[in-house]
Specification:
The protein starts with a helix and ends in a 29-residue tail after the last helix. The longest helix is centred in the middle third of the chain and has 13 residues, at 34-46. The chain has helices spanning 2-6, 11-17, 22-26, 34-46, 52-61, 68-77. With 106 residues, the protein is mostly helical. Helices cover 47% and strands 0% of the residues. The chain folds into two domains: 1-28, no CATH class; 31-80.
């Protein structure tokens, strides 16, 4: 927006160089997702091990008319560590220290 305030006639040229349309440059979203974010934070605190779809269905069962894409966008916007995953298992040699690819013949 600073381009337009400093030199309003040159903003079109600058946007052309950036390959950005004027409408997308001046676009301001009217979406207010603050209530959705509050509900989602409350759900993640009360049910930390549940996944996205359970949160979605819980909100729908409460009577919230929410699109899953909108919920997913907001769920991805704030990072929470909901689930603790098990540590990955290291590869263990079968049969000997030097033979990693050992197998049993029948």
């Amino acid at each position: 927006m600073e381009i337009h305030k400093l030199r309003p006639k040159d903003s079109g040229k600058a946007l052309c160089v950036l390959k950005l349309s004027r409408s997308s440059f001046h676009y301001r979203s009217l979406k207010d997702d603050s209530t959705v974010v509050m509900e989602l934070e409350q759900l993640t605190q009360s049910h930390p091990r549940e996944g996205f779809w359970k949160y979605y269905h819980r909100l729908r069962n409460r009577g919230e008319k929410i699109n899953h894409n909108r919920l997913h966008r907001n769920e991805a916007s704030f990072s929470t560590q909901r689930k603790e995953t098990a540590p990955s298992q290291s590869k263990i040699a079968l049969g000997g220290a030097g033979n990693i690819h050992s197998h049993v013949e029948y």
